[in-house]
Amino acid sequence: MISIKKPYVITRNKVIMDYARVYCDTPEKLLKSPLFLEIVDRFIEKTAAKGSALFAFLVESLPNLKRGDLPACMVNLFRLLASYSADEITAMNRDFEQVLSRKEELHELVEELYNYWRRFERFLYLEAPKRYEATNSELHGVQFIKSNEDFKNLVLYVYRRVAENITGQSPRVYRQLPSGANMGMLVEQVDWICPDAYSNLRQIPFLRLSLINPPVILYPVTNKRKGAFEEIDGIKPETLRLDQADWFCYPAKVGELTAFIFFHQDFMSLALSLSNLFEIAHYEDVRGRSPDLMIMFGLSGEGMKSDTLFYEDRENNILVGLVKRTEEVDYFGYFKKMALTLHNIAMLKRGRLPVHGAMVHIKLKDGGTANIVIAGDSGAGKSETLEAFRTLSEENICDLKIIFDDMGSLGMGKDGKVSGYGTEIGAFVRLDDLEAGYAYEEIDRSIFMNPDKTNARLIIPVTRYNHVVKGYPVDFLLYANNYEQIDDDHSVIEFFRTPEAALSVFRSGARLAKGTTDEKGLVHTYFANPFGAPQRKDIHEKQAGFYFDHMFKTGIRVGQIRTRLGIDGFEHVGPRAASMELLRVVRGMKFKDR
Q: How far apart are CA 12 and CA 2, in angstroms?
């Protein structure tokens, strides 16, 4: 039996609304809604728990009411204030005379109630008919976007109308704050090839369109990722038990692979943030098809021996990720890295070499081009160096395309050259390591996570999907060394003479941990890539040997670049110096325009 979704859910400081069932197009309907009553009730409960002066004001102004009657009474008052002034209401109903006589305090209460609502992370979704039943599928998207705008405007109008009828004055400053939903999604039931073992997932609706009202600021419970993803040899049936009414699916393109990312509504904010990171799969990639990757984020944990597991389902040719519903994994990095771990294992099976790093294609003003890959683990300075490269190179570079920002793979192109392929259209970067002001330049399309904490993050689109999957021939492969200083023995960029010397450095995967995970100090990670490489070490060694040999034979420059990002005081100076040296090296090389 399929569970029916509730009209709205309030969970973990999130309000998740099914717009078809909470729909309201007038102030009267909004103020009569069960959701508004619950918000008022929760607000009064919070002010009472704090011993707030606002709660004392309510008790004193409505002395004949019990605590449990206050929310309904206030809702009735707000309904009147949406149509009449305070003086008009007093003339009609003496029950509200005391509370309306203290206009300043009542106005303050309305302001705090409005702020209380806006402090929730607010999500709106609407389920469209199945594609083959719809006469015009694009119409549903247009209607959904308009519905979100209408809801935002209605909330704003009611708030202002009530405030004006209390004070008797119109505002002199109008702040068009996002008072509706922060994010939304249009969802749809999709017929996909669902193996019997995963039948509980068959009726979960798929996201077809997402809506973001930036800047979005989210506050996940944790701000770093811990541990590694553990592989298991089978999934217990009880692990897959779930209530479909609490779940949705984000169909993502992870590079050229299709991933069905199922998520519990508790993780709605993190899941919808994937819109800035992974391309949403086209309908043709979903309907009547089976995914390459599948993730269930928010399982009960029954039958799971740890919070994050994965399984290679060879029978159905699907790589499956399992994540428990716990606050310990309430961090965007778990969504991102689980998808990338499964991607990397799939790439190894297809004869490619996964790379934990960043790649850019640049075109110089003198006509030359270069494709640069910088490999390194989290906090090594790969993205930061390329970002500094972007900001410092305007005089010399006329075009810069990001191929991947965090994870990609090396494969053989049609011309027999080693080429780089990406996974993501966005970047998940540390605010502290960006150039000052960059985050604010991009604020209109950004999602911020815990901006007031250590390891504050920004999710931002950085490239287009066609660049991610095109395949760009590699000219430079550099290891991001964030722990060594520059001196007489260590230059900013050092090229290796043999594949063996290069493999030794890449295999060691040394870096100074930056606090992006639970590691500290100088640590070593196999090939700077804990996402798939250690789990498939034998095949990875074979692929690495093949690609490094081929790169040296075909003239690809392989070396290391000292970013010094892990050294105190060099967080900005190091990547900047590295980018300047990289530009000098690129200009000195002769690459044909491609």
A: 24
